[in-house]
């Protein structure tokens, strides 16, 4: 209980830095703008055709494209950009606790903040789309029109037919939360490795490069690099699904029983293992970290 108490104390101290913190305020403001931008197209489409939406569908569509996931992930840098939080008091904390407890506190903080952030996005999407939405656990006529007609891809509302046929909105939201939680753990631990190397700029750039790698790894690029003919283009899609971190977070880019894409549990396992490797490196770096007092 003593170890857990000390770990949660560090988590609490991290949250105390939120008070009147301009970066935290900017993060939530930009997240609100993100919701307004992405929900606007859905509202216009629904009003134009006189249809309704399932209340979670705009949130699901927002996480249906790699570029939207990239943007939402980068907004979390406002919350995590300085991690692990090291100040003049940190050495005194580490006198009273093991470094693995201190690292564990940072990871718990990442998980709690990611859930708060996703709940904020989900709540804003629900509030903005509430007048044209219903809460039932079934896909809407708007989603069916966007998916089956192909219009969704043209207006950046990726309503996947595969998602609607193989899942329901409530389950889909829960799995998006899980995938985003694991992905943010991966990106933040990757950034913490660079930050512990006393290279804050390198930490931020490493996150940009990791996300850029996932964004640029498209079937078209894979097909050209490996000279895959267009007649077997599905091989490029499968390779992108396995090799791109962003595709591991994109819900419809998974195997629901009839292709070779990774299954949800396989993506979770890959993200979890990669995060575990990062944590081992962080633990080693934390043991060698030299504090400087001013």
Automatic annotation (TrEMBL):
Signal peptide: none annotated. Keywords: Membrane, Transmembrane, Transmembrane helix. The chain crosses the membrane at residues 24-49, 69-86, 107-134, 173-194, 201-222, 264-286. The keyword Cell membrane does not apply. This is ABC-2 family transporter protein. It comes from Dorea longicatena.
């Amino acid at each position: 209980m003593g170890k857990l108490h000390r770990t949660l104390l560090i988590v609490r101290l991290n949250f105390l830095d939120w008070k009147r913190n301009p970066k935290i305020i900017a993060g939530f403001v930009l997240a609100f703008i993100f919701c307004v931008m992405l929900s606007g197209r859905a509202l216009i489409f629904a009003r134009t055709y006189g249809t309704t939406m399932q209340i979670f569908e705009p949130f699901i569509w927002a996480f249906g494209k790699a570029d939207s996931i990239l943007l939402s992930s980068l907004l979390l840098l406002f919350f995590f950009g300085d991690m692990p939080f090291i100040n003049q008091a940190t050495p005194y904390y580490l006198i009273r606790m093991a470094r693995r407890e201190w690292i564990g506190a940072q990871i718990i903080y990442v998980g709690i903040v990611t859930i708060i952030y996703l709940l904020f996005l989900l709540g804003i999407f629900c509030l903005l789309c509430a007048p044209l939405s219903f809460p039932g656990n079934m896909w809407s006529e708007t989603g069916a029109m966007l998916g089956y007609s192909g219009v969704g891809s043209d207006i950046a509302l990726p309503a996947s037919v595969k998602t609607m046929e193989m899942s329901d909105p409530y389950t889909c939201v829960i799995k998006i939360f899980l995938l985003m939680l694991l992905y943010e753990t991966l990106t933040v631990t990757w950034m913490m490795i660079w930050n512990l190397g006393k290279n804050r700029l390198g930490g931020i750039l490493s996150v940009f490069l990791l996300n850029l790698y996932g964004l640029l790894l498209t079937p078209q690029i894979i097909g050209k690099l490996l000279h895959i003919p267009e007649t077997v283009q599905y091989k490029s899609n499968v390779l992108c699904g396995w090799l791109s971190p962003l595709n591991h977070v994109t819900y419809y880019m998974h195997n629901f029983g009839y292709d070779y894409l990774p299954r949800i549990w396989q993506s979770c396992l890959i993200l979890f293992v990669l995060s575990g490797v990062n944590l081992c490196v962080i633990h080693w770096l934390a043991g060698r970290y030299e504090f400087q007092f001013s």
